[in-house]
Please model this.
Amino acid sequence: MSTPAMDGAPQGEGGRPAGEQRKLRAALISADDQLRGVVFETIRDAGLPIGVDLDIAASAEFLAPEHMERLRATEPHLVILDMTDDPERAIRSAGAIAASHPRAALVGVGPELDASGLLDAMRAGLVEYVPRPVETTAVREALGRVMRKQGWAEAGGSTSKGQLLAFFSPKGGSGSTSVVTNVGIELHRLTGRKTLLVDLDLELGEIASLLGVRPRFHFVDLIRNFHRMDADLLASYIESHESGVHVLSAPFEPEIGEQVSGEQISRILGFLRDHYDYVLIDTSKSLAPPALAALQAADSIFLVTNMDVPSLRNLKRCLPTLDRVTAGDPGRLRLVVNRFNPKSLVGLQDLEETLGIEVYRTLTNDYETVIQSISTGRPLVLHGSSDYARQLKDLARDIVGGSAGAKAQKSSLMGRLRSRFRSKSNRSRSTLTAAPLEATSHG
Ligand SMILES: Nc1ncnc2c1ncn2[C@@H]1O[C@H](COP(=O)(O)OP(=O)(O)OP(=O)(O)O)[C@@H](O)[C@H]1O
Ligand SMILES: [Mg+2]
Model:
């Protein structure tokens, strides 16, 4: 079994006194002392675990071979580039840095860019762009987003445990995976909080393929190395989706999942909720020990069902077990009726009476939209405006409690690019088509 590479995550520095906090290595490239001041001040005042190990007093557009050499020696996790004087040339420098430091997160600072400029910046490898005039708040937010996206914990973050949300369908094909994936993405989009999707369908989990991500490691790898797990090692088992949501994949070979016990699941979920604000679990259809342990640990259990008789029969048969795992607290169960058809033989009232649970949400039947999203790996809450997508967003908003704003994500590079692209394409037929943006965002 291979050991995950650690170079994408913050590591301890040789010679650092024991107990001192591990820091991300950052490189700052700017000829502007004022910007330098703002960056240092932000890191200090926000208590970010970032050390500026390399401070190059030059503009990003005029990087000399000597600067590239110093970058190579530093191996930074984060590079902050001042692109003010000549953004076009600086974007080329960013491309060169990204090529030689593929794991480093690049943050640009410079004048307001139009949509095609932002797109070029993103293509060159920038993950954030802070337009001038630069203020500490904007730098703080950009660095915070980078740290969350990269799975680097922020200093001074909350130590309280995250919410554990389990999604369970007693009958296959009810839509559980589509729901959990979209809700997870929307929760992250609404709150900007660290969100993890855990694929506990250990035999045939599909979250990774639904999102178009190619995991290097999976849940069982994490179990095997759990004895030496810490935040850094955890980061190397997790894949990051373009939305910022993290994914812990199901095993690649179905038979591996059989080795997992309920006790292992309980311990791992306890660990994961210490590191994430939201942990969403796609449980399998079975009530085998791993799924039971997840349901037991969950703060809320979303029962995803269709309205046909076999689905209801299965759900009813599971109710005594669900009662047991919720220890008589039925408030933890939330009934979500997927593929809802108001004309179906079984009505919502029949359903509620049969199960003794109120319907929490209905999601419309829209096969075309859902299958298209599944086949293309494009989550509906990001790419669709269907009723189904809207209902999933409402479901996520319910979970947040209606209080979340989209503030944290609003000014991300991706967010600004999307909003500009939208306003541009609304205004006129622009030369910028959807294709390159999509290609980039899946790149
Ligand atoms: N709201 C919906 N309207 C129409 N079809 C849907 C809807 N939700 C899901 N489906 C269809 O149901 C199928 C199964 O979806 P999904 O994989 O999300 O369900 P699942 O419960 O996770 O299934 P599995 O048992 O395979 O894990 C998909 O082919 C999808 O097209
Ligand atoms: Mg599934």
